[in-house]
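agent: user wants the full assembly modeled, not chains individually. Plan: 1) parse entity lines 2) check alphabet per entity 3) run joint structure prediction 4) return tokens. Steps 1-2 passed, two entities, 422 residues total. Proceeding.
--- entities ---
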Amino acid sequence: MKTTAYAALMLAFCLLQATWLNALKIFSVKPDILLITMIIAALNFKPGKALGFSVYAGVLKDILSPFPVGLHTLLFPLWSFFIIALSKKIVVDSTLLYSVLAAIIVILQSIGARMTLAFLGEDMPSGIFLRIMILGALYTALAMPIVWKLLKPLIEYRDAEDTIL
Amino acid sequence: MFRLNKKKLSTIGISLSCVLLLAVIVPLIRPPLLNVLKLPLSFLQFVSDEVGGLIFYHRNMVQNEILKKEIGILGQKLIEYDDVVLENARLSALFDFKQKTSYKVIAARVVGSSADDWSSVAIINKGVYHGIKNGYVAVSYKGLIGRVIEAGSRTSKVMLINDPNLSVSAAVQRSRQEGLVSGSLSGSLAMRYLPLESDIAVSDTIITSGLSQIYPKGIPIGKVVSVGYEFSGLSRYALLKPFVELSRLEEVLIIIP
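--- prediction returned ---
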């Protein structure tokens, strides 16, 4: 139940990112709310489910992207794995830490995206790359508390499935 | 932290292979999946447009008044233009010139955009079923918008001219100086590879040159806002403001060659 609801919410967030969030663009950069839902899933679901959500989020993002390979399908599980490993070492339990983590993941995602695009022969000028990376990290970190507040009731909801497990 | 036994290793190996396979096949399954998302995207875009209309009611009202005045002026110009067209037709017939046919276009509505910041793409609600193919040029009544890069059955993706991966062969309308226009994922465009002695100035209109044969000749792209020298000092560049506001696209026209 909780898993299905979260998957549906991820789809809704993906659709919002492709439509409404365009109105909130600053210097042509919008917050990556789909990435945020992936981070929240990695921190709050069991590793198997979290990795499944990250692949799902990656596929959703790639449906709307023009790149010749599933760039996000490849990278999102990697970040999810990194977050799961990190959360076993340190406790990530405050909204501020969530935001810092979101900023770090956006920076890593930007570097990963640029490297993949360069490998595919689609080079991007450094100025544009830096602008998108820095603003994207800041904007996504700022959006994290809002998205977390929206998703927290669902994350904290314990359904029968969780009780059995 | 992670102890790897044979079973775990094989699970990781299979999962990794699945992800890699999925990453490769995602571009192939994208068009049908995008068709599924077309309806919710259209609905959200519709709501967004309506809410925007309510929020910016006053601005829209003022714009409406300005546009009404512009229509009056343009109406006058159209009458003069009709005269010129008739005169041109007469002269062309006189000199036996081949008549240039007007473009056949398909109107489409923008239902969404790319979810990431690394590309500038608009998703439109028409596809192969409506006669759209990869490579077709997208315009609006103001000027060039971009090019169709992925035509699905009922949706298509249009790469906008402010995407750095899209370059357009362009020319200065006044001096016919040629250059290459490319985007920077922002509100401005850059015209590069201009010789040092190139005749280009602020407020010049930039149009498609028709050299690449992808974009028809003479489509307006933008106005020059500044001119400078490249870092190497070997050539000049010009920054352009596109005629079409690419961040607020609602409708596009796809040119059928």
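agent: reporting back. The domain at 2-17+28-158 of chain A is CATH 1.10.1760 (Arp2/3 complex 21 kDa subunit ARPC3). The CA atoms of residues 40 and 139 of chain A lie 17 Å apart.
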